[in-house]
C-alpha cells in the first residue's frame, strides 16, 4: 500500500517539475501536451520496485479553482519483473497554483484514478475492478505523515468514503470510513455503515464499528491477514440479535419448526485458504422458543439456554452445521448436520441428547430411494407422534412425514406412549411411507414385564395388523383404551384398506379372562339398573371370561359394530360410535345380570320358553353412554326390555365360539 501511494505522489512531483517549464504558456493559452512530456514522465518515474507508463499527458489550468491539472490516459504501474500491478484509463492530479508562486511549495490536494483494475494476489484473490479512486488533502510526500481529508472509492457496486492518516516511515495508515456500502459481501447479504474505524500496515488490515448486515444491526470487528494466511485469511467478530427469519435469509436454512424468536448472537467468521469458511457462534437463547419433537425437547421463552454452533462452508456453500453444545436446565445436546444440494433440508443428522441421566441418540441418513432413521437410548416420549399418526389428521410438517420414505430401527429402554404410560425394552423395525406404516415388527414389555407385540404386513391392497399381549388389562391401560382391566389375554387382528384414501382399519378383538376393577362407567350402569354386584368392582373385580368386538376405525371415528362380553356375574353388549378426535362417545347397549342363571333357564325346554316369553328377559336392561369420552353421561332404561330372540342371539355367539374351540 505504501509503495503504490508513493508511486502516485512521486509521479505527481515529476509532472509538476516538468510543468513549471511551460507554466507561462499554460496561463496564457490554457493547456499544453507533448510527446516529450510523456517520455519525460515515463523515463523519470522509475524505482527499485516499480515503473509506470502513461499516454498523452497534458497540462491544463483551472482558472476557476486556480489549479494546475495534469491529465493522462492509460496509466499503468508495473513491477520490475514486468507484471502489471494496476491499470487505469485516466489519471488526474490537481495542484494548487498560488502556493507554488508565493511559497515555492508543491501543494497537491487531489488525485483521481478513473476506471481501472488493481492486481495484488497477496491481498485480493482476483483483480479488483475499480470505477474510481479520489484522494483529497495535503498530499505532501516530504512529510512523514500525510492526512487525507476525504477519500472515496467505487469498486464494482461497492462504495467507500472517509478520511485517513498515513505514516510513510512505518508504512501504516489509520482512519474512519464514514460511508461504506458493500453488496453481497456475505451470502447475498449487503453491508452498510456510517462509522467504521480502520487500521492497515504491512501485515494486516483491521476494522471495527457498528454496521448493518442484511438488515440486521451488528457490531463488527475484523482482521485481514496479508502474511500469516496459513492461520486464516480473514477473521470477523460479529455480535447481534437475530431471528429465525434472518437465518433463513442468510443461509437459506429454515429453522422455524425447531426455533422461534430472538437469538443473542456472538459469532466469529473465518475465511481460510482453499475456499474454506467457518462461522463459530455462541448463542444466548433465553428469548428463543425451542421445539424438537423427535426427541421431545422443548423450551419456553424466558428460560435460560445457550448453544455453541459452528457453520462450515466450502466454495461459499454451507456444508455442515455442528452443535458443539446446547444446554438449558437439565437438558444437553450435541449434533452434526451435513447438508447437500441434492437433499433438503439436510443430508444427514447425528444427534445426541441427554435429559437428567437419560440419553438419546438419533441418526438420520438421506438417500435417493429410502431414508434411514436409527433411534436408540434410555427414554423417548412418542405420545404425540402416536396421537398424530393414529388419531389425528397427518400434518405435512410432522417429523415422520418430513423424512419419509424411511426405514426405522428403534431400540429403547422406555417409550412413553400416553400420559404417564410407557412400554419397555422396545425393539422395533418399521417402514414409514406415504404417511403410513407399511411394515412394523415391534416387541416390548409392559410395566409388569408382560409382553406386547405388534406387526404390520403388506397384503395386496391392504395391510394386516396383529397385536398380542399376555396382559390385556395392562395393555389397555398403557394405551389409554380402558383403565379398569386387569390380567387377561389380548388379541387384535385386522386389515387396513389401502384402496381408500383414508385407509380405514377393520378389525376384531378377543379378550379372555380379564377382570374389571372399579370401572366407573360400568358401575353407573349397574347402580342405575339396581344390579347388586357393584361391590365386586372395588374388590377382586368382575370376571369377564370372554369379550369379542368388531370395529372400523376411519378418520378418527371408531365405529363399534359389535361388542359382546360375558362372565359369571354379568354379560353386556353395545354398539355405536366413538369420536376420538373430538373425544366424544355415542353408544347404546344392553346389560344382562346373572348370566349363568339366564343360560341355565334358557336351556330348560319348557320352563325357559315360558319365562323368557312371558317375562320378556326380565333381567335385561338397555343403556346409553353419550357425551364427553372421559366423563360420559350414562342412562339406563328399566322399562325397555330385551326380547328373547336378542338374548338367544347374544349367547349364540359365545356358544359358536365354544364349539369351534372344542373342534380345535
Structural commentary:
- The chain is of the alpha+beta class and 664 residues long.
- Among the domains are: 1-139; 517-663, no CATH class.
- The strands form 2 sheets. The protein has a 35-stranded mixed β-sheet that branches. The chain has a 3-stranded antiparallel β-sheet with strand order 14-17-18, with no helix packed on it.
- The longest helix is centred in the N-terminal third of the chain and has 20 residues, at 2-21.
- Mean pLDDT is 80; it is low at 16-32, 606-618, 639-656 and 658-664.
- Number of helical segments with 4 or more residues: 12
Number of strands: 38
Strand percentage? over 45%
Major sheet, described briefly?
35 strands, mixed
- Inertia-based shape: rod-shaped
Question: Which helices and strands appear, and what pairs or packs with what?
Answer:
Elements: H1 2-21, H2 23-29, E1 31-33, H3 35-44, E2 50-62, E3 67-79, E4 84-96, H4 97-102, E5 107-118, E6 128-137, E7 145-155, E8 158-167, E9 172-186, E10 189-200, E11 204-213, E12 216-225, E13 234-242, H5 244-251, E14 259-261, E15 263-271, E16 276-284, E17 288-292, E18 297-299, E19 306-314, E20 317-328, E21 331-338, E22 348-355, E23 358-365, E24 371-381, H6 383-390, H7 399-403, E25 406-418, E26 421-433, E27 436-445, E28 451-459, E29 462-469, H8 472-478, E30 485-486, E31 489-497, E32 505-516, H9 520-528, E33 542-554, E34 557-566, E35 570-579, E36 584-593, H10 595-603, H11 605-615, E37 621-628, E38 633-637, H12 644-663
Parallel strand pairs: 24-25
Antiparallel strand pairs: 1-2, 2-3, 3-4, 4-5, 5-6, 6-7, 7-8, 8-9, 9-10, 10-11, 11-12, 12-13, 13-15, 14-17, 15-16, 16-19, 17-18, 19-20, 20-21, 21-22, 22-23, 23-24, 25-26, 26-27, 27-28, 28-29, 29-31, 30-32, 31-32, 32-33, 33-34, 34-35, 35-36, 36-37, 37-38
Amino acid at each position: 500500500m505504501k509503495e503504490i501511494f508513493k508511486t502516485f505522489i512521486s509521479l505527481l512531483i515529476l509532472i509538476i517539475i516538468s510543468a513549471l517549464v511551460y507554466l507561462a504558456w499554460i496561463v496564457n493559452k490554457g493547456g499544453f501536451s507533448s510527446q516529450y512530456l510523456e517520455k519525460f514522465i515515463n523515463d523519470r518515474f522509475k524505482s527499485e520496485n516499480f515503473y509506470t507508463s502513461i499516454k498523452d499527458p497534458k497540462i491544463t489550468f483551472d482558472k476557476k479553482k486556480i489549479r494546475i491539472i495534469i491529465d493522462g490516459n492509460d496509466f499503468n504501474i508495473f513491477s520490475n519483473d514486468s507484471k502489471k500491478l494496476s491499470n487505469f484509463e485516466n489519471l488526474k492530479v490537481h495542484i494548487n497554483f498560488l502556493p507554488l508562486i508565493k511559497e515555492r511549495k508543491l501543494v497537491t490536494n487531489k488525485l483521481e484514478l478513473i476506471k481501472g483494475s488493481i492486481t495484488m494476489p497477496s491481498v485480493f484473490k482476483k483483480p479488483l475492478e475499480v470505477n474510481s479512486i479520489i484522494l483529497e488533502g495535503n498530499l505532501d510526500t516530504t512529510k512523514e505523515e500525510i492526512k487525507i481529508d476525504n477519500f472515496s472509492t467505487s469498486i464494482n457496486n461497492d462504495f467507500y468514503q472517509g478520511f485517513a492518516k498515513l505514516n510513510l516511515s512505518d508504512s501504516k495508515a489509520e482512519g474512519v470510513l464514514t460511508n461504506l456500502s458493500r453488496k453481497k459481501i456475505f451470502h447475498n447479504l449487503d453491508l452498510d455503515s456510517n462509522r467504521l474505524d480502520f487500521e492497515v500496515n504491512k501485515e494486516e488490515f483491521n476494522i471495527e464499528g457498528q454496521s448493518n448486515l442484511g438488515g440486521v444491526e451488528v457490531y463488527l470487528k475484523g482482521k485481514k491477514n496479508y502474511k500469516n494466511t496459513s492461520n486464516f485469511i480473514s477473521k470477523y467478530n460479529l455480535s447481534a440479535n437475530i431471528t429465525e427469519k434472518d437465518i433463513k435469509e442468510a443461509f437459506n436454512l429454515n429453522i422455524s419448526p425447531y426455533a422461534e424468536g430472538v437469538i443473542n448472537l456472538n459469532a466469529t467468521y473465518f475465511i481460510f485458504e482453499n475456499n474454506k469458511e467457518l462461522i463459530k457462534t455462541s448463542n444466548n437463547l433465553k428469548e428463543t422458543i425451542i421445539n424438537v419433537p423427535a426427541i421431545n425437547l422443548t423450551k419456553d421463552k424466558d428460560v435460560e439456554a445457550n448453544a455453541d454452533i459452528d457453520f462450515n462452508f466450502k466454495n461459499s456453500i454451507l456444508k455442515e452445521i455442528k452443535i458443539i453444545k446446547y444446554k438449558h436446565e437439565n437438558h444437553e445436546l450435541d449434533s452434526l448436520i451435513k447438508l447437500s444440494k441434492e437433499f433438503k433440508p439436510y443430508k444427514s443428522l447425528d444427534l445426541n441428547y441427554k435429559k437428567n441421566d437419560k440419553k438419546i441418540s438419533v441418526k438420520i441418513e438421506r438417500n435417493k430411494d429410502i431414508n434411514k432413521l436409527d433411534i436408540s437410548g434410555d427414554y423417548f416420549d412418542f405420545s404425540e407422534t402416536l396421537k398424530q399418526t393414529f388419531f389425528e389428521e397427518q400434518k405435512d410438517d410432522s417429523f415422520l412425514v418430513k423424512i419419509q420414505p424411511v426405514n426405522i430401527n428403534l431400540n429403547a429402554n422406555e417409550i412413553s406412549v400416553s400420559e404417564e404410560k410407557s412400554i419397555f425394552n422396545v425393539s422395533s423395525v418399521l417402514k414409514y411411507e406415504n404417511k403410513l406404516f407399511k411394515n412394523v415388527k415391534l416387541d416390548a414389555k409392559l410395566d409388569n414385564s408382560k409382553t406386547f407385540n405388534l406387526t404390520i404386513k403388506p397384503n395386496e391392497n391392504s395391510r394386516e395388523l396383529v397385536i398380542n399381549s399376555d396382559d390385556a388389562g395392562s395393555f389397555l391401560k398403557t394405551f389409554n383404551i380402558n383403565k379398569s382391566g386387569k390380567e387377561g389375554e389380548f388379541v387384535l387382528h385386522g386389515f387396513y384398506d389401502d384402496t381408500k384414501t383414508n385407509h380405514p382399519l377393520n378389525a376384531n378383538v378377543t379378550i379372555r379372562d380379564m377382570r374389571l376393577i372399579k370401572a366407573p362407567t360400568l358401575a353407573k350402569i349397574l347402580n342405575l339398573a339396581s344390579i347388586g354386584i357393584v361391590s365386586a368392582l372395588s374388590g377382586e373385580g368382575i370376571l369377564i371370561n370372554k369379550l369379542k368386538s368388531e370395529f372400523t376405525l376411519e378418520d378418527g371415528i371408531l365405529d363399534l359394530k359389535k361388542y359382546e362380553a360375558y362372565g359369571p356375574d354379568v354379560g353386556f353388549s353395545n354398539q355405536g360410535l366413538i369420536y376420538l378426535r373430538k373425544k366424544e362417545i355415542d353408544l347404546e347397549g344392553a346389560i344382562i345380570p346373572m348370566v349363568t342363571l339366564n343360560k341355565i333357564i334358557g336351556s330348560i325346554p319348557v320352563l325357559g320358553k315360558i319365562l323368557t316369553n312371558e317375562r320378556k328377559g326380565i333381567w335385561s336392561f338397555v343403556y346409553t353412554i353419550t357425551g364427553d369420552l372421559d366423563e360420559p353421561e350414562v342412562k339406563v332404561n328399566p322399562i325397555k326390555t330385551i326380547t328373547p330372540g336378542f338374548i338367544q342371539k347374544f349367547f349364540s355367539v359365545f356358544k359358536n365360539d365354544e364349539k369351534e374351540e372344542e373342534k380345535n
